[in-house]
Amino acid sequence: MYYGVSYYPEHKTKAELEHDIRLIKESGINTVRMGEFAWNRFEPNEGEFHFEWLDLVIENLGMDGIKTIICTPTACPPAWLVEKHPDILYMDNRGVRRPFGGRRHYCYNNKSFRKYSALITEKIGEHYGGNPYVAGFQIDNELAQEGTGRCVCPTCSEKFRNWLKNKYKNIENFNRRSGAVFWSQECNDFSQINPPVNTIEVGAQQQIHAFYENPTVRLDFERFSSDSLIEFQNLQTKILKKYTKYPVTTNATGIATNSIDYYKSTKELDCYGFDYYPGLRDTAVDSFPYAFARGIKAGKPFWVMEFMSGGGHRLGGSGRLQPNPGALKQAVIQSFAHGAQMMLHFQFRTFPIGAEQLNYAIVDADGVPRRRYYEMKETAEVLRKIEPIISNSKFVNEVAICLDYDTHWALRIKPVNDSSFYYFDYCRKIYQSLSEVGVNSDVISYDQDFDQYKIMILPTGFVLSLEMREKLKNYVSHGGILLGTFLTSVKNIDNVGYVGSLPSGLSDLFGTTVEEVEPVFENNHNHLKIEEGDCSITTTDEIWSEILSDDSELAGKYLTDYKKDKGVIARNSFGKGMAYYIGTDFCKEDLKTFLLNICKNNGIFIHELSGNDKVEVVRRRYEGKDVYFIFNFNSEETEIHVSGMFIDCLSGKVLKGKHKIDRNGYLIAMKSV
Ligand code: GAL
């Protein structure tokens, strides 16, 4: 297990460096991440490489058992490179090149940029690949972050045309599949196609808000840009792997940015690494990003390359709150409980300089260790004690939620109930609802194995391939329980609407057909009644409303307006399993009741430790026993009720009946058999 900080020795005087290294050593952390913005220190002039400035730091830390994660510095192409090859600069959707002076100002498809990136990566790999004090490599820094994932420069445009040609083979096929007859968009040759940005709306940001663009070409552009970033990343992966046996990864932006399909991008990496900046002041830390991270490589431990460290100033201007005492420690342990193997705070000491001057860190610019530093020190101590349990325990979740980037992108291209419906937030709501009723779940991609799960949840399977339809049918016919929700199987993989009745091609599986759809705004809510097993809920539709056909076996009906007595939730036995179709969204409390009931009826494990909503419980299996990681996110001490007998893994005390957990406290309890 790796725990530590990001650190920037290139900014420091000799005296500062000595001071910081002493503090780092005394803190008990075991990992430092360095180098990601230091291209000009590594290569101040073309072809002139220097590593001595970093070697000394790595060795100094390494002698005391602190490992280094070395980053390739390609997020910051230096002035000499931009001057020589101005065409490497990133071009945004207004056609404006991003000038030198910030970071990430490059086009990932540009040949010259790739050549120089390959060379610096080669040199770093060669120099550090076998260094005993190195623990791994990070490629670049937050690929696509800060709106740099959708370059439209001439190189990208040309490559996009070739990408389309490769996919569609001939122009007739492209015209047909992309619906190009609409608005006379048919082309005679691939050379006539452009990246589909600004064809109607012009926004200054590289977000997808272009509702009138051709949806097929736009989804292809999303895929092409994601593929291009992955290709750029993997040029570096390949080079580093020539020189090292240490793990190679990158720091993704997780579910915050979504310009890259991380299920694809992590295939050639050794693990999924990502950055996470949750608030730590009087708030629960959302564990959905961890479940997502764990699912990227089918349960393999993930690395958190950057994590919150403190409050104060912030790059974006608004500032951040300081963590509650104890919150930093609690959050770090929580991330390891959810499957992290590495967790590095951003960053060790506040920068007095540059765009991020005075940003939060573990230690302030004056270098004086204060409470965050001492809390990090205590955390390192706890982690040492729990390492055997974390490293040797497994997740045994029986419920999974499956996600997909095509659906995410398609819902950004043609939003439904825009601003109220965000696909990843909806998935998060389902995940949290399960967690709050005592069911831990996994978050996986459409490609992963469904059969190991008793219940599979398909939230809004908007873009659904023919293969995925078959996979779902197979899963249910062999005994799986499927919960599909509104707007499922609406579009094919070309982002074109299916003309079969909805859920297209799945009416047999769900035993229902969608008769009518509409968004739910403030003035058209309807009440509905859900009756399923022991649960009877009266609730209100939200976001999107579908009326299901009269021939469905209903588990939910509308109660009001012209929809009265019409179906909204259908239930259908299919082969050995059961499929539910849920034609609307509803509030979290009612969703929890509904999900709990389905889980209970299907023998899903529901943990025996109950507290309240703000107590999170993660269950893992360790040496044949259940081990629970319990986190109190209430803003006061809380009491949990333990049924059965448990041992507190840290104190060794026996736990029975009622037990108190401090504000921002945690408990690691092993079931005693
Ligand atoms: C991250 C970035 C870091 C730093 C940090 C500040 O997105 O990777 O370099 O800028 O944000 O919170």
From TrEMBL:
An example molecular function term from Gene Ontology annotations: beta-galactosidase activity
Active site, renumbered: 142, 306
Glycoside hydrolase family 42 N-terminal domain residues: 7-385
Positions with a binding annotation for Zn(2+): 107, 151, 153, 156
GO cellular component: beta-galactosidase complex
An example Gene Ontology biological process: galactose metabolic process
Pfam families (UniProt xref): Glyco_hydro_42, Glyco_hydro_42C, Glyco_hydro_42M
Residue ranges occupied by any Beta-galactosidase C-terminal domain in the UniProt entry: 614-668
Enzyme class label: hydrolase
Ranges where the Beta-galactosidase trimerisation domain occurs: 398-603
Residues that, per the record, bind substrate: 103, 141
EC number: 3.2.1.23
InterPro entries the record matches: Beta_galactosidase_C, Beta_galactosidase_Trimer, Class_I_gatase-like, GH, Glyco_hydro_42, Glyco_hydro_42_N, Glyco_hydro_b
UniProt catalytic activity: Hydrolysis of terminal non-reducing beta-D-galactose residues in beta-D-galactosides
Keyword Cell membrane: no
Keywords of this entry: Glycosidase, Hydrolase, Metal-binding, Zinc
Family that this chain belongs to: Belongs to the glycosyl hydrolase 42 family.
Name recorded for this polypeptide: Beta-galactosidase
Lineage: Bacteria, Bacillati, Bacillota, Clostridia, Lachnospirales
